[in-house]
Amino acid sequence: MTFTLWQILGGFVAPAVALALVAGIAWKLAPDARWVFGPLIATAFCIAYAVVEPRIGWPPTRNVIYLPFYFAIAAGVLTLADSLLKPPIWLRGLILVILWQIAVRLILIHQTTNVLSPWIDLSTLITLTWFILFDGLADRAPGITTPLLLTAISGVSAIVLALGWHIQSSGALAGVLALISMSGVVLGAVSPRISFSRGFSQMIVVILQLLLVHGYFYTDDNLTNAQQILAALLLAAPFLALLGDLPALKPRRNLPRLFLRLGPAILLLTLIAAATVRDFVRADQTAAPAQEE
Questions:
Q1: Does position 15 have pLDDT exceeding 70, yes or no?
Q2: CA-based, 20 to 30 A from 202: which of 136, 212, 237, 256?
Q3: Which pLDDT score is estimated for 293?
């Protein structure tokens, strides 16, 4: 799957830039504009999705490849309601669990869902913990911390999906999430008062998890044990950000906290990306002589 320069600029880069501009203006005009992130991220993602999959069908269940588009719209509406109504965390978690179970079962509608039921439950648990982790991190560490970590995770997920699992469309969309997260980094650097909880972080988490679930279960490859381990490490990487909350760091300045929150996680993600690219190059080099024969 290849894209023209205009598709990349107009479908991927421009929506992320527009998101940063509109969100920045909203935060200038209002003391709390977290509500703007849900609709903006949903819009930016759907524009990019229309570039990757130009013919989006109806109903959503007609083809599972259409589901992330409609899920992003639903997530944007629910995130808008969440940021305005501010329900307690237990209610947010309960709603997420119920809707996630429905969403994943729709994605896996062509699979044997009874056999995959434990995996669906595991996916629900991982998504819920990511949801709570990133939302809490955004509250405890305002500024660039949360969007920078989301940028790294989305970017490495794009590499794993495209080069490791050979799901180019999902890889491209994960790359779009990395661009959107990068716009959050710019916003956090310009105005540290901007909050990425109850809006920004949960949108990126939910959409990225959907792409990973779709890629994992619909890849045509038989994933090796090494690829399975890399996938598990990718899912575990965000938890390294909790090192920045060690009690020993409480009296210290923010710089050591920032390093411990981002350093180990980004190092692990870099190793995952490097291993994925290495395996891809090796497989390509091995396949080349066979094709010549």
A1: yes
A2: 256
A3: 52
